[in-house]
Design a protein that fits this description.
single chain, 363 residues
Length: 363
């Protein structure tokens, strides 16, 4: 009898050992498979209703990455984004890495403007007790001859990736070096494409697209109805309101009066109605939700950073993407399929929706 129990103990021990060994091998293997399997473009939903057609109510461009942008009534939509958007950036002169409002809130005090008549980009800093007045003007669409004469083509680094850029002289950048308190250089994106990564990578998107100095995608679209809903929460809970400028969108649409956050399911959109005959049409793929850092906490007028808002409120209910659960989402990242003339007032129509958007790290 004792022998039987000993055999039983041995059998149970062996069984647990075997099960543990199987789990030890299978569970990590399953996790590895699901984390590393090739990502795919989200599938189109055939059951989810399409949001109602809306319209573009504002267009914004930000010529210098992380600096103040401005509104326009019309702009050429290029495959790489709106004309002039994120075409320039500041970089550390020694390390040659890009500088961002994420670390330097005061970058929002660097203003940009466009003189259409002169085709000139004007860069300025208003005079304060801390800063002298600065005004610099450069060609908005510099010719190759001008670039060869006034800049040097070199390498700069953005999000760990080297790319090319035309570097402006130390003398032109000197006032900004004083403002930053370190040696910086202004760079203009060179001819080598910055091929999209993450949700816009060729293997996921199905084609190769690129952008200038934008983070992840050429175009960011925001929904004013969602902005109003967020402001309603901010007003109720914090007695404050903010402008949509804090989210730095390129295209702002009116949205559906009844449904904020309808953008979460956009997959493909069509913009139309801008030509003389009303037949201009541009299609954009909606690659991903725009996951947010704390840049929206920075007041664009003063560069003061709120320690909590709107980050805290967004974190309370806008962690909606399983691919990046530690950040809230606001706005959608889009990739144009066609180029054309964008205008305020054009129709903005969602032609496909999806329930399986999943953020893929791209920087």
């Amino acid at each position: 009898m004792a022998v039987l129990f000993e055999d039983f103990d041995f059998t149970v021990t062996a069984l647990y050992t075997t099960l543990f060994a199987i789990l030890f091998v299978l569970v990590p293997s399953a996790i590895y498979y699901f984390e590393t399997r090739p990502a795919q473009r989200p599938t189109t939903s055939s059951t989810l209703p399409l949001p109602p057609t809306t319209e573009i109510i504002s267009l914004r461009i930000y010529p210098i990455k992380s600096c103040r942008g401005f509104e326009v009534s019309s702009r050429k939509l290029l495959k790489t984004g709106l004309d002039l958007d994120r075409q320039w950036m500041f970089m550390d002169a020694k390390e040659r890495k890009f500088l961002t409002i994420r670390q330097i809130s005061e970058m929002t005090l660097i203003n940009t403007a466009l003189d259409e008549a002169k085709d000139e980009l004007q860069i300025s800093i208003a005079k304060t007790d801390k800063n002298p007045e600065v005004f610099v003007a450069i060609p908005a669409h510099p010719s190759q001859e001008w670039l060869d004469k006034n800049t040097t083509l070199g390498t700069c680094n953005i999000w760990g990736e080297d790319t090319d850029g035309y570097e402006y002289s130390a003398s032109l950048t000197a006032p900004f070096s004083e403002f930053f308190g370190q040696e910086v250089r202004l760079v203009y994106k060179g001819p080598a494409p910055r091929v999209l990564r993450g949700n816009g990578a060729p293997g996921i998107l199905g084609r190769k697209e690129s952008t200038k100095f934008a983070d992840l995608a050429p175009v960011q679209v925001s929904n004013m109805r969602s902005m109003q809903e967020l402001n309603g929460r901010l007003k109720t809970e914090q007695d404050m309101e903010i402008t949509i400028e804090r989210f730095r969108p390129n295209i702002i649409v009116k949205g559906d009066d009844a449904e904020p956050w309808s953008e979460d399911v956009w997959k493909t959109v069509r913009i139309s109605g801008g030509g003389k005959g009303g037949d201009d049409e541009m299609i954009m793929d909606v690659a991903a939700r725009c996951a947010r850092c704390q840049v929206p906490n920075v007041d664009p007028d003063t560069a003061e950073k709120n320690k909590k808002q709107p980050w805290d409120i967004l974190m309370s209910y806008r962690r909606v993407d399983e691919g990046i659960t530690f950040k809230p989402c606001f706005g959608m990242l889009c990739i144009p399929k066609q180029e054309g003339a964008l205008k305020v007032g054009m129709k903005f129509e969602v032609t496909e929706v999806t329930t399986d958007h999943k953020y893929i790290k791209g920087m």
